[in-house]
Design a protein that fits this description.
Mean pLDDT of chain B: 91
Low-confidence stretches of chain B: none
Shape of chain A: globular
Radius of gyration of chain A: 19 Å
CATH superfamily of the largest domain in chain B: P-loop containing nucleotide triphosphate hydrolases
Largest interface: A-B, 18 and 26 residues
Radius of gyration of chain B: 18 Å
Number of helices of chain A: 11
Largest sheet of chain A: 2 strands, antiparallel
CATH class of the largest domain in chain B: Alpha Beta
Strand content of chain B: 15-25%
Structural class of chain A: mainly alpha
Shape of chain B: globular
Helix content of chain B: 25-40%
Number of domains of chain B: 2
CATH topology of the largest domain in chain B: Rossmann fold
Structural class of chain B: alpha/beta
Helix content of chain A: over 70%
Number of strands of chain B: 12
CATH class of chain A: Mainly Alpha
CATH architecture of chain A: Orthogonal Bundle
Number of strands of chain A: 4
CATH architecture of the largest domain in chain B: 3-Layer(aba) Sandwich
Distance between the termini of chain B: 25 Å
Mean pLDDT of chain A: 92
Low-confidence stretches of chain A: 302-306
Number of domains of chain A: 1
Number of helices of chain B: 11
Distance between the termini of chain A: 42 Å
Oligomer: heterodimer
Order of helices and strands of chain B: HEEEEEHEEHEHHHHEHEHEEHH
Chain lengths: 306, 249
Amino acid sequence: MTLDVLISGVVLGSLYAIVALGYTMVYGIIELINFAHGDVFTLGAFISIPVIQAIISQNGSTPTLGQSIFAIGAAMVVAALCCAVVGVVIERVAYRRLRNAPRLAPLITAIGVSLIMENAMAQWQGGLPVFYPTALQPSSYTILGTTLTNTQILVILGALAMMLGLDMFVNRTTIGKAMRAVAQDREAASMMGINVNFIISLTFFVGSALAGAGAVLYGIDLGSLGYDSGFTLGLFAFTAAVLGGIGNIRGAMIGGLIIGILQEYVSGLGNGVGTEWYDTAIFSVLVLILVFRPSGILGTNTAEKV
Amino acid sequence: MTNESLRHTLEEKQPLLEFRGVDTYYGSLHILKSVDYRVGEGEIVALLGANGAGKTTTMKTILGIVRPRSGQVLFEGKRIDGEQTGRIVEAGIAPVPEGRRVFPRLTVLDNLKMGAWTRKDGQVKQDMDRVYDLFPRLAERKNQQAGTLSGGEQQMLAIGRALMARPRLMIMDEPSMGLSPILTERVFDTVVEINKQGTTIFMVEQNAYMALQVAVRGYVLQTGEVVLADTAPNLLASDMVRKAYLGET
């Protein structure tokens, strides 16, 4: 594997990791695979488009670095907040009533929410991919004999900052610890006086905000997206979450990176294997993990979660 | 003390915790049937009963996790049924739940912090030191994940966590469950110690003998109804308790 492949794998994997965090946080706290999460991601990307367009004119003139930073920052904040609110509303409207229902019921509901969002976004943005506006004047640097674009650096740094921030939030702050307490034993947490509904809403808020902010990085990196982009990406991110150990935050980060690198590696193989095979490779990982190590790389024993 | 004089002393002052004709249901299942309890300030009161009698439901009703369909739960004379658990904990009631229920992948220290969740005063640190004084073992292991502690240590942590709420009333659900006789004795010694320091205790326990050794009064619950309410010595001497809970024929 060349350094090039590794770098593009890390870039892609950082995006998967950000989305995987949302799946894993929600699963950790209410044991639901939130299929709508990928679509919240897509929504974040669409919402951020006009923000960038408002700050950087798209008539071919070169944005200054200051403009780029402001536009990207503003787009990430707006997308994160909008997605966070949407995530909280989805939980409140579609999942909360089903919290004590058999697990299949909220799962089917989640698929339903996903379909509703996708169709609404197809109505809004059309069925064809739309271009993501230019936010950054492309440039590249040669480091250690390999080329690194400024977009790649942006994605890696942006994702790293989000992951470190989340890790600090969950492990160092009292409210983050309360979140873990609710994930570990919801009833005992409620006996401490912790408002479980609030903590669950907060989990959706944070997970969806990450997806929204990550979607801006995705748009800038890939340059276009469609109404169903988040669904596909969500499946890969979900695989990453399972690989790392569903419910485990650091696991999701590691799983995301591994899936990203795997995808770029398989895509670059050539000789009859190539981009048409990475889906197969990734979902093979999902199947193998589910069969041989369902708790994932860092996952705690599932039996503990009673 | 005769029943008459017992009733007399109880009526003199307002109890800290009171159940007045409480009925609870799970779906159509009638669990507590017009139950009355009174727990006076500074007392240790035991609640005895077989599995399924409604002991844990009693605990959940106090905490607002189960809501009575009729009747009232009063704490310091104010109704708390219908309040949110957070408010009830804030008012001064902290649980030591059945099976300990410590947070296995949080450290000992963080478990204690969760116990202090509702506290807004600045004296959490003092109370943590007090818990460490009471259980030096917890101080040694404060950065260890709670799931790695032994059963006895987890019980200490569960008690310490409850104390972190600085409760006026600590409600304990089966504190001896799963513990060896020696550890059970140590837990009960601690309960007495905590009570001496001013915390009222309402305790559900299957180990009737141990519970009645430390309690001043007790209730016997049978299929959701209070069938006996008396002082601890009288209960220990009663035929019913001896037969049903102390294994005597």
